[in-house]
Specification:
Blueprint lengths: L4 H12 L1 H5 L5 H4 L1 H16 L4 E5 L5 H8 L3 E6 L2 H10 L4 E4 L12 E7 L10 H11 E12 L7 E3 L6 E3 L2 H10 L2 E9 L10 E8 L1
Parallel strand pairs: 1-2, 1-4, 2-3, 4-5
Antiparallel strand pairs: 5-9, 6-7, 8-9
Length: about 210
C-alpha cells in the first residue's frame, strides 16, 4: 500500500473513531430509496456485462459491500483503515475485506468488472483525484463500471467542509465528471438528491461511469 502523510492521517483518523462508529445505526440504505436505486442500476450494469468481481473502495464497516452482495454481485471491500476492516470482517464474516489504498490497489490490470466508491474519494486531495481515477481505470476490464457517491457543492466551487472525521471536499458534479472523462470514462448517468431528515445538510451527488 502506498504511504503518504495524507493517507496515514486519514487511516489514523478513521481508526480513532472505529469503536463509536461501530455503534452507529446501519440503516442508511433502508432509509434512502434513491441511493438503493443507484446501487441497483450499477449492479444491473455489471450483470449485463456477464458479471465478474466488484470492489467497494473505502468500504468502512461494510454495509454497502453487503448490500451489493445481496444484489447478486461477487464483491469484496477495501479500506485504508485497519480498524474499519476489522469491523467489516466481524459484521460480515462471509465477505472478503482487505486493507489497501484506492490509488495503489493490489490488483491486476483489468481484473474488476465494477468499482463502487461510496463517499470515499471525498477525502482525496483534489490534485490527487486524476491518479485515483487512473488507478480505477487500470484495474477495470473494458466496459467495466464505476459508481461514485460524494457530497455535491450545489453551484459553489470545490470546497472543504467540516467532516466529522477528517478533511473532506464538496465537488461540483460537472467538475468530477470531467476529471473522470479525462481519465477514460464515459458518463452513463447521474443523480443528485437533497439531504433527508437527520442527514448533514448537503446535497448528495452520484455518477455512474463506464470504462471506454
Amino acid at each position: 500500500m502506498r504511504e503518504s502523510s495524507h493517507l496515514r492521517a486519514t487511516a489514523e483518523a478513521y481508526d480513532a473513531v472505529a469503536v463509536p462508529y461501530a455503534d452507529l445505526p446501519r440503516d442508511d440504505l433502508e432509509r434512502f430509496p434513491l441511493d438503493r436505486a443507484v446501487l441497483a442500476a450499477f449492479a444491473e450494469a455489471v450483470r449485463a456485462c456477464d458479471g465478474g468481481p466488484v470492489a467497494e473502495l473505502g468500504c468502512g464497516p461494510g454495509p454497502v459491500t453487503a448490500h451489493l452482495r445481496d444484489l447478486g454481485l461477487d464483491v469484496f471491500g477495501v479500506d485504508l483503515s485497519p480498524a474499519m476492516i476489522d469491523l467489516a470482517r466481524d459484521a460480515h464474516p462471509d465477505l472478503r475485506f482487505e486493507v489497501g489504498s484506492m490509488d495503489a490497489l493490489d490488483l491486476a490490470d483489468g481484473q474488476l468488472r465494477g468499482i463502487v466508491s461510496w463517499y470515499s474519494v471525498i477525502h482525496a486531495p483534489p490534485q490527487d483525484i486524476p491518479a485515483y481515477f487512473a488507478e480505477f481505470r487500470r484495474v477495470l476490464a473494458e466496459g467495466g463500471h464505476l459508481l461514485l457517491a460524494f457530497f455535491e457543492s450545489e453551484g459553489e466551487p470545490l470546497t472543504t467542509f467540516d467532516h466529522a472525521v477528517t478533511t473532506a471536499y464538496r465537488w461540483p458534479i460537472d467538475d468530477l465528471a470531467g476529471l473522470a472523462r479525462e481519465a477514460g470514462f464515459a458518463e452513463v448517468g447521474r443523480m443528485l438528491r437533497e439531504p433527508c431528515e437527520g442527514e448533514r445538510r448537503q446535497r448528495r451527488g452520484h455518477l455512474l461511469m463506464r470504462k471506454v
